[in-house]
Task: structure prediction
Amino acid sequence: MGFDRKYLICALGYVVLGMGVGVYMGASGNHRQLVAHAHILLVGFVVSFIYAIIHKLWLERPGKGIAQVQFVLHQVAAVVMFLGLLLLYGGVLTETTLGPILGASSMGVLAAALLMIYMVLKSGALKS
Result:
């Protein structure tokens, strides 16, 4: 399975999860998970969907190793971020406990974005 499809499947999973959190907030009247909800939809759904499009349209043959590292890094960092935010805004764990974990996951998402930029530049996709 190509990375375009892998990212698309993940994006669709994140949109269901994000919408589920939104439905929960609306039904319960408890909107404490708004930050987690937004991150699941933006970092999970939107970014994964954009990465799927990039792979489909511009990265026909990315370096398999770097593409795999980038994919795994984004997915792991995103899931850790979402779980950390759900625990934080759900009042399960404190910011003191989760701060370093959320910081590391944010850096992981950023590093994955930088790897994507590198793959796009290396592929020559931006040449006229």
Q: What stands out?
A: The mean pLDDT is 95. The chain is about 80% helix and 0% strand. The first helix runs from residue 3 to 28.
